[in-house]
Amino acid sequence: MSLKLKRQEIVNTGRKLLSEGLVTRSWGNISIRVDDNNMLITPSGRTYDDLQEEEIVLMNYHTLTYDGKIKPSSEYRLHAEIYRKRDDINAVIHTHQPNASTLAVARRQLPPVIDDMAQIIGPSVKVTKYAYSGTGKFARQAVKYLHGRQAVLLANHGAVCVGRNLEEAFVVTHILEKAAKAFIEAELIGGATHVSKISAYWMHKMYLKKYSKMNEENR
Ligand SMILES: [Zn+2]
User: Fold this and answer.
1) Which residue of 9, 64, 97, 98 has the fewest CB atoms within a 10 Å radius of its CB?
2) How far is the CA of 26 from the centre of ligand 1 (A)?
3) How many angstroms is it from 46 CA to the middle of ligand 1?
4) Catalytic residues, which ones?
5) β-strands 91-95, 29-33 pairing
């Protein structure tokens, strides 16, 4: 996919997140891995409704240097650390989405309460220890608790959702929000139950395998 198409994909995904209430105004950020050194990331302080392709910043995720005069999102370290540590991930969405943020504030991990959450996200969504946003510690915490999963909750802050492509990361944001809402509401009416961690682990493994096979078939 060309750089231009990747920029377009980021802009379109920003609008979809906005229309689904998963981001508001300029909060949250999106990136795509371009190659072994670079990522495209949304700029700092811009609103999603009128974001332009040329405002997306090309940044080296090893050196943290970037092209042009437009500043990348202040949370670029979070995205860079994920691309450095997770070879399997090519897209990152960071949100302050409402129900996932409630869990991040309560510092409650999300157990595998819904089948599609277990399949697509993994056996649970863990919560990091608290760190100031934008710092290296914040980024390292996120990667640590993201291990083996496609989402993590950032203590008192929000969520990070990742995928092998941007479409998959978008689906993760959606499913995370749905599962977080179901979990919170089930706790209010007597308590949530969840599938076993072992079943959830295997469901996730199977999903990753099946999906990569489907990709090969489509080539
Ligand atoms: Zn944030």
Assistant:
1) 64
2) 10
3) 14
4) 75
5) antiparallel
